[in-house]
Amino acid sequence: MIIRPKVRGFVCVTSHPTGCAANVQEQIDYVKSQPAINDGPKNALIIGASTGYGLASRIAAAFGCKANTLGIFFERPSERGRTATPGWYNSVALENAAKAEGLYASSLNGDAFSNKIKEQAIERIQSDMGKIDLVIYSLASPRRTDPETGEVYRSTLKPIGRDYSNKYLDTDKKTIQEASLEAATDEDISSTVKVMGGEDWELWIQALKEANVLADNCKTVAYDYIGPQVTWPIYKDGTIGRAKIDLRRAKEAINQSLGSLGGEAHVSVNKAVVTQASSAIPGVNLYVTILFKIMKELGGHEGCIEQMSRLFSDRLYSNGGTVPLDELGLIRMDDWEMEQKIQDAVSDVWPRVNTDTINELTDFEGYQSEFLRLFGFGVDGVDYEAEVEPEVEFS
After folding, report:
1. Whole-angstrom Cα distance, residue 156 to residue 319?
2. Strand-pair category, 164-170 with 152-154
3. Helices 115-128 and 199-210 sit at what angle, rounded to 10 degrees?
4. Which contiguous run of DSSP H or E holds residue 65?
5. What pTM does this model have?
6. Greatest Cα pair distance in the chain
7. I want to staple 305 with a disulfide (CB 3.0 to 4.6 A). Which of 56, 107, 202, 380 is the partner?
8. Is 175 helix (H, G, I), strand (E, B) or coil?
9. Measured between alpha carbons, how far is 62 from 79 in angstroms, rounded to an integer?
10. What distance in Å separates the CA atoms of residue 286 and residue 177, rounded to the nearest whole number?
11. Which residues of the chain have pLDDT under 70?
12. Which one is catalytic: 235, 287, 317, 367?
């Protein structure tokens, strides 16, 4: 079949297997073009490994450090002529590329919050890998089922304390609109923390430690975002921000737990990039289009793979093993984004952006291109007029 992008609101409901594979290969090629990381991990577990920062982390570990990798994700394969999710195609392509270079790469598709997947991961590690020296936690989910109680929690993206209005970019109509969100309830806050906070990260590390599959001096990293003040009411100071505070709480608890192994836990604050989630956040997608234009002009623009390659080479596995942290104990991979000159430029542009000035003041085309690439479309060298088989399986 010939597969074309079908965008509905903030989501593309089709994905292209050849395009996804080409996108993965581009990321692999970038990592391989960088200096090798000689003291990197040997066995890495990536929880949330199929898209975005999780996928980029797996690529950086495998092709930058020659690590064996086990990826955990929840993706849908192709069925009845319907294309698979892009994360499925990404993961098949990554495994094929890794195995072609003699690297071990295996995957588990299922609910990473469940005890079942944790048990399966431990069994796979014990049988195939030995001990894990890097655990990346990069889950983003709208809901979580508590593995002990069976209760389902749903995350929300809401302000706390008062209703919130801000302008946002309607990418379908290419117009600037205003969105309003009601203030979160206490239940909204607690449920979001339950889904997006640090509890499941702690449970993973606890399970791995109890199974004796964590190596001495292991590292574990979870991902965070802070962003500029213009997005704080909906992000940093909203329900998702409360979840990220809990993520940092979990970091401290995990550090104590790993002390006997000489291990360490970190939270990395990453740069704003185009993701399916960020495209739906009022204010954030507009901020990203402005940021992209400014950082491409002034320097320092990075996507997921550039960020993760720098995280591995400049932070996690450099400086004699000492990871540089800010005053809050966080890794700041958003350092280039948050430079004063960049944020001053964003602040100058923000009030001047309207429907008539989108082309002049934002990188709308770049944003749209990056969005479609998430689903395997618009990748150089791919013939999108060619027939393609949507059913792609792991070998």
Report:
1. 39
2. unpaired
3. 40
4. helix 65-65
5. 0.96
6. 60
7. 56
8. strand
9. 30
10. 10
11. 277-280
12. 235
Cα–Cα distance measured from residue 196 to residue 208, given in angstroms and rounded to the nearest whole number: 20
**Which long-range contacts link 124-130 to residues 24+ away (Cβ below 8 Å)?**
124/70, 125/43, 125/45, 125/70, 125/208, 125/211, 125/213, 126/211, 126/213, 128/68, 128/70, 128/104, 129/43, 129/68, 129/70, 129/104, 129/213, 130/43, 130/213, 130/215
| 8 A C-beta contact, residue 392 and residue 35 | no
What are residue 168's DSSP bridge partners?
A: 177
Structure tokens at 255: 């550090």
Mark whether 287 is an active-site residue: no
Residues paired with 175 in a beta bridge = 170
User: Residues 116, 150: contact at Cβ < 8 Å?
Assistant: no
Q: Which two tokens stand for residue 139?
A: 């889950």
Between β-strands 68-73 and 105-109, what pairing exists: parallel, antiparallel or unpaired? parallel
The tokens for 168 are: 């946002």
The DSSP code sequence of 69-122 is EEEEE-----BTTBPPPHHHHHHHHHHHHHHHTT--EEEEES-TTSHHHHHHHH
Token pair of 291 as six digits: 């940021």
Look up residue 192 and give its amino acid: T
Q: What is the DSSP string of 200-249?
A: HHHHHHHHHHHTT-EEEEEEEEEEE----GGGTTTTTTSHHHHHHHHHHH
Residue recorded with tokens 């199929």: 50
Which pLDDT value is given to residue 280? 67
Q: Which phi and psi angles does 284 have, rounded to 5°?
A: -70, -45
Tokens at 20, concatenated: 């996804």
Full strand arrangement of the beta sheet holding 105-109? 105-109, 68-73, 43-47, 132-137, 214-224, 264-269, 331-332
Q: Are 382 and 375 in contact (CB under 8 A)?
A: no
Tell me, what's the pLDDT at 279?
67
- How many Å apart are CA 311 and CA 334, to the nearest integer? 11
C-alpha–C-alpha distance, residues 325 and 317, integer Å: 13
- List the domains of the chain with CATH numbers: 7-148+193-282+302-338 (3.40.50.720)
Of 192, 191, 112, the C-alpha closest to 147 is 112
Check if the beta carbon of residue 47 is closer than 8 Å to that of residue 137.
yes
72: nearest Cα among 142, 120, 35, 33 = 120
Which of the 8 DSSP states describes residue 79?
B
Q: How far apart are CA 128 and CA 234, in angstroms?
A: 43
Distance (Å, whole) CA 93 – CA 285 = 28
Token pair listed for 135 = 């655990």
d(C-alpha 161, C-alpha 233), whole Å:
10
